[in-house]
Predict the 3D structure of the following.
Amino acid sequence: MKAQYPRSQAQIIQVLKLLNYAISAQDLYVELKRRDQPLGLATIYRALEALKVRGTVKALTLTSGEALYSLISQHQHHLNCVSCGQSFAINECPVHHFEEKLKQTHHFQVYYHTLEFFGRCHQCQRKSVL
């Protein structure tokens, strides 16, 4: 049975599916307006929060403090540079086995997980040596 979403949440889900990349709430506001589906910024934040609670959307908080939202399709892991702010995706997942253990031992349904490392990228390290 397909989950039913309020109109604002359904609009956001549709746009996130079409974009297929993480986006800030402010940029989502602009994108919805561009598509003639305007929603207020407060409504967008409430809808995103509700979608997070339902396990439909995830938020990635950048080193700048800005949150980027995307649909939960797969686990993603990142290396985040504290100097330049770039985020690099990691394709490996060393915690899937731990997620399964939590599911069994704590009867906890995991929607998704994040794994982020913070440090300095190769380019920023080179700049400090020069």
Summary: Residues 57 and 71 are 4 Å apart (CA to CA). The chain has a mean pLDDT of 88.
